[in-house]
Structures are given as C-alpha cells and as structure tokens.
TrEMBL record:
The keyword Glycoprotein does not apply. One of its GO terms (cellular component) is plasma membrane. It comes from Sinorhizobium americanum. This is Transport system permease. It comes from the Bacteria.
Length: 293
C-alpha cells in the first residue's frame, strides 16, 4: 500500500505575479527617484575633485543663498495659502453648495487638467494675459482707461509669480479636498441641528475640527508643490527673481555660476524642506482618514 503526500509548491505563483505587477513602478522609482536623490546627497558632501567636505553645506548660509531660500519660502507660503483658501470655498461649492452635477463634473475635470498645467505653457499663458501687452492688460487700458502696470503691478515679480502658481494650486486643492468634504456625514449635521446648533456652530465645532487635518495637510502639500517648481518660474521671470530652483539650475548648468556640488547642496536643502512638508502631510492625512472612518 502506497501513500502520497501533497507537497507545497516551491514558488508561490501568486506572489510572483504580484511582484511582477509592481516591478515597473519599483524600477522607475529606483532609476528616477532613489538613485538621483542618493547622487545629489553624496555630491553635496564632495568637492569637484571628489574629496569629502562640508564647505558646500556651509555655503548654504551665505546671504545670497539664504535670500533665495527666503524668497522661495515666501512664494510657496503665499501661493499655498491663497490656493488653499480659494480652493476650499470652491470645493465647498462643488460638494455642499447644491450646484448641478454637470457643473461639478466639469469643474473637477478642469481641476484635473489645470493642476498639471505648468511650465513654459503656463508662463506663456500668463504673459499673454497679464503681461504688459497681454489681453487683459490691453482690454483694461483701452476700454476702461485703467493702466494695470501703472498701479505698480508687475507679472515678473514676487506677486506675479505667486498669482501664476495659484493657477495650479487652486485646482490641486479642489481635487484633494473634495473627497474630504464628501466624507462629512449628514448624520453629524442633523445631530447638530437637533441639539440646536446654528450653521456657524456646526462648522466651528464639528466640521472644521474634522476637516482641519485635511486642510492643513493639503496646504503643506501645496507648499511643497510650489517650492520645487522651476520651469514656470524660469520661463516667466528668467533670472530676475532669485529663487532656489533657479539658483540651483544656474549652479549646475549655468555658464557663469558653475559649481555643481554647491547645486547638489542646494538640492539637498530643498529635499529636506519638501520632505518635511510631505511627511507632515502624510501624517495629517492618516489622522483625517481615521477621523472620517
């Protein structure tokens, strides 16, 4: 009498298929995110001759570079706060304002497109609209006798760059915050009304505390999004506005300011700042998801 025993397969086919599924993403992340980041971090501690040094990091505290970081932080804060404020009310109108479904779907579709519209096309669009000979500028001058640039407005400035950044910051806020507003349960509003709470009391004591992690986290994400942008700023202002991405580009690729290792140190500083913003965003998003379950 012979007995047969079932043996477990040496290779789990399901696990192999799962790993093959994520392999393209893992390879892409390794080639275009992890390896370049490690290269930048390593280069920040080396001289052009390849010897170890802390001079590149020490040079980050020179007045010119500190000024570039400060301008970048100011532009990022201003555009993220403006985008968060306007985007919140726009998302509120879409979700809770009672607008028709076709308006909601149209605004969300536009937000998906506009949040990715950046770089040279965005800079050209704003120059064609709000430049010195732009469509809106000429329209205000010829039809209403209002000289926009006579008021001190300049598109190629801190304020102009902030407005340009807000073009993609506002729709990004809408896309991220709309699901959070959708997650507000009707039972919470009904319970507040039964207990005699006004609309203002409901938002101040119930809705905003629940939405606060999402609001703050998305604002931090907008900050990181603006802080790392270079194509729009470079195409719009050139080198007239000394922000970190443009200074970094000048150090690595420029003909005059050519110090790649200092550029790597600048990039390391940007990685630290945006990394902190993204870590805080992820932590706040996890808190928001826990509240809304």
């Amino acid at each position: 009498m012979t007995t047969t025993t079932a043996t477990a397969p040496l290779i789990n086919k399901r696990a192999v298929i799962d790993w093959l599924g994520i392999a393209p993403f893992a390879i892409f992340a390794l080639m275009f995110l992890i390896v370049p980041t490690l290269y930048l971090v390593t280069g920040a501690f080396l001289t052009p001759e390849g010897t170890f040094t802390f001079k590149n990091l020490a040079d980050l505290f020179t007045p010119t570079i500190l000024s570039a970081y400060w301008i970048s932080i100011r532009v990022s804060v201003a555009s993220s706060l403006g985008g968060a404020l306007i985007g919140f009310f726009l998302a509120w109108a879409i979700v809770l304002g009672g607008v028709p479904n076709w308006i909601r779907s149209g605004l969300l579709t536009f937000s998906g497109v506009a949040s990715n519209f950046a770089g040279v096309p965005l800079a050209f669009a704003f120059l064609s609209t709000l430049g010195r000979t732009g469509l809106v500028t000429v329209f205000l001058r010829d039809w209403f006798g209002f000289n926009l640039y006579g008021t001190g407005f300049n598109l190629l400035s801190f304020f102009g760059l902030t407005i340009t950044y807000m073009y993609f910051q506002i729709p990004l806020m809408v896309l991220i915050l709309t699901p959070a507003l959708d997650g507000l349960k009707k039972e919470w509003r009904e319970a507040a009304e039964i207990l005699g709470a006004s609309t203002w009391q409901y938002w101040r004591m119930v809705a905003l505390p629940i939405l606060w992690p999402s609001l703050l986290g998305t604002t931090l994400l907008l900050f990181a999004n603006a802080f790392g942008a270079i194509a729009t700023a470079y195409a719009l202002t050139g080198s007239s506005l000394n922000i970190v991405p443009i200074l970094l580009y000048a150090q690595i690729r420029g003909d005059v300011l050519h110090n790649p290792n200092l550029g790597y140190a600048l990039a390391l500083g940007m990685i630290v700042i945006t990394g902190i913003s993204n870590i805080l965003y992820i932590w706040l998003r996890m808190r928001a998801e826990r509240w809304q379950k």
